[in-house]
């Protein structure tokens, strides 16, 4: 069906081939009509996603289109061809990179190749090669963002977030780091490296602050997950009730049975479990019926603009009413102003985090923040 639709879209003006799996290629001569690739891509994005009827099933189709244009007088043709082996391989690689970019949007779309994509790909390949040695060398460290009692301003805990202090590229954020760790199978090693370091740091903090750390969906396939957590707690003599794991609903979509068993094992240790980014997905309510959580975290996309977007305000208010009905503690993420903080208090939210209080900080700066926050509360009585 897809092959037939593609032939209909391009007609006799191009060669269409199935490359393999769910990938097709189009070789489109561009002589005088420079807009032809754009028009073809737009037609593909419009025509292909129509549902396909298979017996009683209606199958939805998504499509991403990557476009690369190559001319014989291209100044870089010799360099690219020498690098990739042939003109054909060069164009295919570039189109594939553009396709990857088009698919990152999550819906049907198209994207033209540009040289920056090549640089990004090279950077990613280099980082994939470097990440495991970096974990062992301690280059990837936890940064801490405080979790605060909204009414009193007291710091009650923190979220530990990974940062790569790369010797050549500077500080790399999770948006770069985490996909590479997952893609290379290093995510478990990374998480437990952060966990051990965060526990060691927390033992030097004043009070009994809790630590929250994210678990990747891939880690629920690890049959030894709970045992590794227990080892980290025991080795450092750290109370289990000061540790919380944050889990997104993607975990339950991808691995429902494994997630349920692992979740119960973690709770048996005495650690807390939070459902992260609550409200942003489609099945949060059903998960709360099936799994036991201690708290939910309201997604920042609703909190940040709740005072200027009535729909976001309604969602936050509804989640808070729901959390109280289920006896769950709700934490609001993405608080960036005093006005949002005050409105959340009025709605009955007790706990929150966001740039209004502090950005994620390395341990030494976080300790200074704790000291200043404690002194401010002491002066207020």
- How far the N terminus sits from the C terminus, by CA atoms, comes to 72 Å
Q: Estimate what percentage of residues fall within beta strands.
A: 15-25%
Report the CATH architecture of the largest domain: Alpha-Beta Barrel
**Total domain units:** 2
Shape: globular
Structural class: alpha/beta
Using the coordinates shown, work out and report the CATH topology of the largest domain: TIM Barrel
The percentage helix is: 40-55%
For the secondary structure, the number of strands is 15
Helix-strand sequence:
HEEHEEEHHEHEEEHHEHEHHEHEHHEHEH
Q: Can you walk me through this structure?
A:
By secondary structure, the protein is α/β, with parallel strands linked by helices. The chain folds into 2 domains: 2-113, 2-Layer Sandwich (Alpha-Beta Plaits); 126-380, EAL domain (TIM Barrel, Alpha-Beta Barrel). Helices cover 47% and strands 20% of the residues. The chain has 15 helices and 15 strands. The strands form 4 sheets. It has an 8-stranded mixed barrel, surrounded by 6 helices. It has a two-stranded antiparallel sheet with strand order 1-2. Strand 12 (272-278), helix 11 (284-290) and strand 13 (295-298) form a beta-alpha-beta unit. Helix 1 (2-10) runs antiparallel to helix 2, helix 3 crosses helix 4 and helix 8 (225-235) runs parallel beside helix 10 (256-269). The chain is globular, with a radius of gyration of 25 Å. The N and C termini lie far apart (72 Å). The mean pLDDT is 86.
């Amino acid at each position: 069906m897809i092959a037939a639709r593609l032939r209909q879209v391009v007609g006799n003006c191009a060669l269409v081939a199935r490359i393999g799996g769910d990938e097709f290629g189009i070789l489109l001569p561009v002589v005088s009509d420079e807009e032809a690739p754009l028009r073809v891509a737009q037609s593909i994005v419009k025509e292909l996603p129509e549902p396909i009827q298979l017996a009683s099933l209606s199958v939805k189709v998504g499509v991403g289109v990557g476009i690369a244009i190559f001319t014989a007088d291209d100044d870089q043709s010799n360099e690219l061809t020498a690098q990739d082996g042939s003109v054909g391989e060069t164009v295919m690689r570039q189109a594939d990179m553009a396709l990857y970019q088009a698919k990152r949007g999550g819906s049907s779309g198209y994207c033209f190749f540009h040289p920056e994509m090549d640089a990004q790909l090279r950077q990613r390949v280099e980082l994939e090669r470097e990440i495991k040695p970096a974990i062992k060398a301690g280059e990837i460290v936890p940064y801490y963002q405080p979790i605060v009692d909204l009414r009193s301003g007291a710091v009650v805990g923190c979220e530990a977030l990974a940062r790569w202090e790369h010797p050549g590229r500077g500080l790399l954020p999770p948006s770069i780091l985490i996909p590479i760790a997952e893609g290379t199978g290093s995510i478990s090693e990374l998480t437990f490296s952060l966990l051990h370091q965060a526990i060691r740091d927390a033992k030097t903090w004043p009070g009994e602050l809790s630590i929250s750390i994210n678990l990747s969906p891939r880690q629920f396939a690890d049959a030894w997950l709970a045992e590794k957590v227990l080892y980290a707690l025991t080795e450092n003599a750290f109370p289990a009730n000061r540790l919380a794991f944050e889990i997104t609903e993607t975990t339950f979509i991808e691995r429902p049975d494994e997630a349920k068993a692992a979740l119960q094992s973690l709770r048996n240790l005495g650690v807390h479990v939070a459902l992260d980014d609550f409200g942003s997905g489609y099945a949060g309510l059903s998960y709360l019926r099936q799994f036991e959580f201690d708290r939910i975290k309201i997604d920042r996309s609703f909190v940040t603009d709740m005072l200027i977007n009535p729909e976001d305000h309604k969602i936050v208010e509804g989640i808070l009413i729901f959390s109280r009905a289920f006896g769950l503690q709700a934490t609001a993420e993405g608080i960036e102003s005093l006005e949002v903080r005050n409105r959340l208090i009025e709605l009955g939210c007790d706990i929150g985090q966001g740039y209004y209080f502090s950005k994620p900080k390395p341990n030494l700066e976080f300790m200074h923040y704790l000291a200043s926050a404690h002194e401010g509360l002491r002066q207020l009585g």
